[in-house]
Amino acid sequence: MSAWDRKVFHRVATRDWPGAHPMLPRLSHSANHGLLWFGAAAGMAVLGSPRARRAAARGVVSLGLASLTVNTLGKRSVRRARPVLDHVPLMRQLKRQPITTSFPSGHSASAAAFATGVALESKGWGAAVAPVAAAVAFSRIYTGAHYPSDVMAGMAIGAGAAFAVRGLVPTRSQMPSPGRPHAEVPCLPGGKDVVVVVNSAAGSARAAQVRDALPLAEVVECRSGEALVAELEKAAANCRALGVCGGDGTVNAAAEAAIRHGVPLAVFPGGTLNHFASDLGLDDLHDTCRALASGDAVKVDVGRFTPEPGSGTRPGIFLNTFSLGVYPELVRVRERWSPRIGGWPAGVLAALRVLRGSGPLEAEIEGRRRALWLLFAGNCLYQRVGPAPSRRWDLADGLLDVRVVHGGRLPGVRLLAAAAAGPLSRSPFHAAVRVRELRITGLAPRTPIAYDGEVTLASGVLLVDKLDEALTVYRPLLPA
Predict the structure, then answer these.
(1) CB hemisphere CA count around 213 (13 angstroms)
(2) pTM, rounded to two decimals
(3) Cα gap 12→142, rounded to integer Å
(4) What share of the chain is helix, strand, coil (3-state, %, to 5)?
(5) Which residues pair with 404 in a beta bridge?
(6) What percent of the chain has pLDDT over 70?
(7) DSSP 3-state assignment of 263?
(8) 446, 459 in Cβ contact below 8 A?
(9) Fewest Cβ atoms nearer than 10 Å: which of 62, 223, 333, 463?
(10) Cα 305 vs. chain centroid, distance in angstroms?
């Protein structure tokens, strides 16, 4: 192996590689300490879809595991000297030569780990990253930093790290197909007989993307509010499938119209978070287009809240979550500031202001008077712990995922304790149960409630329950 290594290394060193000199040494240097890959991950997270963000996160975690393996086991187990640079042209050599042992190549391990991790989550992004990773690995031989076997061993360790991470945290393609049971719906390739209502807050570019992807569909742009609700009602009455592009609040309004008119719903992610679309495996509009073309759809549960007659509160549904306590006020503050400073900063500011200025809510739940900071009811069980919405694998389990954070001092500590708890638990700080329905009484007049990111006011009595498999929604049978 040593003789083969030296032979290949010598051939690479003495051969002229047109165009390599301006690029490879700089590329090799840019990958020091994983900076190249961290930058790539940041770009994917900012500019890409939810699938791109998952791929970036998986690539970074895989890189971390590969680096740990190389630096703690690899280089300490095989103390191989670096290649002699006699035959490597000076212009190719790195300005600062590595001082660690040669076997295996840490740069190659990081490159392979990041590229493999990304590819396991997203084939498209993996294809974009792979040539850069291969160039980084080759640059380690080109610059004289490593022998070929160092590079191959490093790449094997990197790829192995990515697969090890997948074993611990499965990719979306390994997860159960989201939603059940399968529903019979028409195949509508190109958007034939589909009306898509686009919330103008999603941007004109999003509407143009929908038109390009579905040339046979009717696409209508509309502002949120009563005009949007009216347009959804009109579209649902005159189509074979109702399409909607917007955030969770817009999708909620579309779901009401689809249920009322008995048509399937096609969701095109167009908001900031898109919880419902994400739980269905819809990362971008092309996923929905594939489902429309193939006629793949599922029936999903719908949550419902019903006030007592004469309360002045309109009944409503929720596809994701229903809550009262500090969360509705947090939503209102966040929505007020997000156009100015962005979604996440506004969320942090809202949490700080609400926890400092609010008191616990008084309500009677299942016949018992309680003081509480938060009551959260999820439509189906959320797999991630805590009072905030995260991820569901079964959207038709017939249950409400209820989390209660009890009133008392230190609301921030109580909310964090609930976030660290399991989906079924009880403590002096919080409780988590699964139920079919929940009766809430004794609400003070004009108590804010939040549902799917929208806020309304309620008083008196609220019944929160489920409409089992009430909504039919398109989603691809298999991930892309």
Answers:
(1) 22
(2) 0.67
(3) 6
(4) 45, 25, 30
(5) 375, 431
(6) 83
(7) coil
(8) yes
(9) 223
(10) 27
Which residue in this structure is represented by tokens 């493999």? 116
Least confident of 27-36, 136-145, 231-240, 349-358: 349-358
3-state secondary structure of 437: coil
CA-closest candidate to residue 316, choices 179, 472, 453 = 453
Distances (CA, A) of 357 to 65, 110, 246, 326, 354: 43, 47, 32, 10, 5
Could you tell me which residues come within 8 angstroms of residue 367 by beta carbon, excluding any fewer than 6 positions away? none
Largest Cα span, the chain: 90
C-alpha span between 154 and 114 (Å, rounded):
12
Residue 154 reports pLDDT greater than 90: yes
Omega prior to 18 cis, within 30 of 0: no
Token digits for 455? 């806020």
Tokens of 67: 């680096």
Given a contact cutoff of 8 angstroms between Cβ atoms, the answer to whether 205 and 278 are in contact is no
**Total residues found in the chain within this entry:** 480
Residues 6+ apart with CB under 8 A from 150: 80, 102, 103, 104, 105, 108, 140
428: burial class by Cβ within 10 Å (0-12, 13-18, 19+)?
exposed
Task: Give the burial string for 76-108 (b: 16+ CB within 10 Å, else e).
Answer: eeeebebbebeebeeebebeeeeeebbbbbbbb
Q: Is the dihedral of CA 46, 52, 57, 59 positive or negative?
A: negative
Pairing, β 194-199 against β 241-246: parallel
* Best CA proximity match to 148, nearest among 326, 49, 290, 12: 12
Instruction: Identify the burial level of 22 via C-beta atoms within 10 angstroms of its C-beta, where 0-12 means exposed, 13-18 middle and 19 or more buried.
Output: exposed
- Residue type for position 47: L
How far apart are the C-alpha atoms of 474 and 188, rounded to whole Å?
11
Q: How many CB atoms lie within 10 A of CB 61?
A: 19
Angle at 437 between CA 402 and CA 361, to 5 degrees: 50
- Residue 36: how many other CB atoms lie within 10 Å: 21
Peptide bond into 176 cis (omega under 30): no
Amino acid at 15: R
What's the gap between Cα 310 and its chain centre? 41
The neighbour count for residue 370, using CB atoms within 10 Å, is 18
- Provide the 3-class DSSP secondary structure of residue 185: coil
Tokens of 414: 């109580």
Cβ count within 10 A of residue 113: 36
Closest CA to 301 of 187, 476, 464: 464
pLDDT digits (tens, 9 = 90+) for 336-389: 666 566 655 665 666 666 666 566 777 887 777 877 778 889 999 887 533 444
What six digits make up the tokens of 134?
A: 């291969």
For 337, the 3-state DSSP assignment is helix
